[in-house]
C-alpha cells in the first residue's frame, strides 16, 4: 500500500493532490483530513487547507489491514522591508553593497536558516514559512563578501 502527496506544504487556503494504491485489499477508508470509502487506487484533491492536516488511509483484505498516514503543512508569508544602509560600520559610505542575508529560526539569536537576497536595490523580501513563531534578523554584505553585524531582531508569528 502507498499514499503520497503532490505538495507537502501549501499556502493557507490552498489544496494538494493525494495519490494512493493498495494491492491484496478489498476496501479502503479515508480518515483524518478526508473521509469516506476510497477505491483501491486513485487520487483526490484535498483542500482548502487552513492548518497542518494529517490524512490517513486504512485498507483491509483477507490478510489483515494496513494504514498509511501523511501530513500536509500550511505555510504563511512574512513580508520584510528595510532601508539600505548608507554607510559601512566604520562610517565610510556604503558604495559596494551587494545584498542582504535574512536569518531566521525558532529561538532568539539562534538562527537555524537563512536566505541570501542579492542586489543592493532590493528592499523587500517575502519568507514562506510553516506555522510557528520566528525570530528574524538580517545583515548586509558587500561585493567582497564582508558581512555586517545583525540588525535588530523582530519576532513574527505565522498562523
Model description:
With 159 residues, this protein is mainly β. It folds into two domains: 74 residues, Immunoglobulins (Immunoglobulin-like, Sandwich), CATH 2.60.40.10; 77 residues, Immunoglobulins (Immunoglobulin-like). It contains no helices and 13 strands. The protein is rod-shaped and about 80 Å long. The two termini are 33 Å apart. Strands 2, 4, 5, 7, 8 and 11 form a six-stranded mixed sheet that branches. The protein has a four-stranded antiparallel sheet with strand order 10-9-12-13, with no helix packed on it.
Record keyword descriptors for this entry:
159 residues, 2 domains, Immunoglobulin-like, 0% helix, six-stranded mixed β-sheet
Give a short overview.
With 159 residues, the protein is mainly beta. The chain has strands spanning 2-5, 9-11, 14-21, 27-32, 36-38, 41-49, 53-61, 64-81, 97-105, 113-118, 124-130, 132-142, 154-158.
Write the layout of secondary structure elements.
Blueprint: E1 2-5, E2 9-11, E3 14-21, E4 27-32, E5 36-38, E6 41-49, E7 53-61, E8 64-81, E9 97-105, E10 113-118, E11 124-130, E12 132-142, E13 154-158
Parallel strand pairs: 2-8
Antiparallel strand pairs: 1-3, 3-6, 4-5, 4-7, 7-8, 8-11, 9-10, 9-12, 12-13
Amino acid at each position: 500500500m502507498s499514499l503520497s502527496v503532490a505538495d507537502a506544504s501549501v499556502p493557507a487556503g490552498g489544496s494538494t493532490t493525494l495519490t494512493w494504491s493498495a494491492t491484496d485489499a478489498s476496501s479502503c477508508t479515508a480518515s483524518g483530513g478526508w473521509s469516506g470509502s476510497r477505491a483501491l487506487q486513485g487520487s483526490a484533491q484535498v483542500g482548502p487547507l487552513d492548518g497542518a492536516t494529517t490524512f490517513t488511509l486504512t485498507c483491509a483484505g483477507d490478510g489483515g489491514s494496513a494504514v498509511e498516514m501523511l501530513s500536509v503543512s500550511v505555510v504563511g508569508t512574512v513580508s520584510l522591508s528595510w532601508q539600505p544602509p548608507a554607510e559601512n560600520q566604520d562610517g565610510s559610505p556604503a558604495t559596494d553593497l551587494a545584498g542582504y542575508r535574512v536569518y531566521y529560526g525558532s529561538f532568539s539569536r539562534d538562527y537555524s536558516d537563512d536566505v541570501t537576497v542579492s542586489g543592493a536595490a532590493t528592499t523587500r523580501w517575502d519568507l514562506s514559512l510553516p506555522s510557528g513563531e520566528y525570530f528574524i534578523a538580517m545583515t548586509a554584505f558587500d561585493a567582497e563578501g564582508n558581512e555586517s553585524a545583525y540588525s535588530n531582531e523582530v519576532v513574527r508569528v505565522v498562523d
